[in-house]
Amino acid sequence: MHLINGAPERGRILFAHGAGAPMDSEFMNVVASGLAARGFQVVRFEFPYMQARREDGRKRPPNPMPRLLAAFTEQAAELDDSVPLWLAGKSMGGRVATMVLEETQAKGALVFGYPFHAAGRPEKPRIEHLKSIERPVHIFQGTRDPMGSRERVEAYELSGAVELHWCEDGDHDLKPRKASGLSQLQHLETAFDTVADICTG
């Protein structure tokens, strides 16, 4: 099962969900619609554990990483045509996108809230592959993300191909506190405009 938004006027984005929510969560819907409005065809899919949950309603933990990597790679292979492809994901889906990126035909990866470490476990960063990656990776990250705040992430030695786009006061969903005077939608709209510049520049 796939969800497809938009036409590939500017290219195609293969967009994966995070660990806990399916491909049609509110966040996924908003991002897919926003990117489609900027001329991209957005293709969503679900990892095997989420497909199983959709079938029987039982919550499951994510599949082991090798299965997640294989599933993303398989989806990318199905889209191997003349349309420029970018891999994308929310949180875990974005992490998997960056891990398979250089095994696919995709031009680069887009991540909405990268899980640089598990919540409360900053001593175990998930960045090894990001130190040497060569294709472009654009990460839209809240400055107070509990899985990778600005203060912590800027101390990492990441590849020059990795570009961080900071969303002021944003959490893991890029949502700022009301007192900031900002909104999640503002951050997302800015991200969508940035993607349009990146992917067609």
Helix content: 25-40%
Q: What's the level 1 CATH class?
A: Alpha Beta
Q: Please tell me what the overall shape is.
A: globular
Counting structural domains, the number is 1
CATH fold topology: Rossmann fold
Give the SSE order as H and E letters: EEHEHHEHEEHEH
CATH superfamily: Alpha/Beta hydrolase fold, catalytic domain
Which structural category do the helix and sheet elements fall into? alpha/beta
Low-confidence stretches: none
Question: In what order do the strands lie side by side in the largest sheet?
Answer: 1-3-2-4-5-6-7
Separate helix tally: 6
Strand content: 15-25%
Structure description:
It is a single chain. By secondary structure, this protein is an alpha/beta fold. It has one domain: Rossmann fold (3-Layer(aba) Sandwich), CATH 3.40.50. Helices cover 32% and strands 18% of the residues. The protein contains 6 helices and 7 strands, in the order E-E-H-E-H-H-E-H-E-E-H-E-H. A 7-stranded mixed β-sheet has the order 1-3-2-4-5-6-7, with helices on both faces. Helix 3 (65-78) packs across helix 4 (92-100). The model has no long low-confidence stretch (mean pLDDT 96).
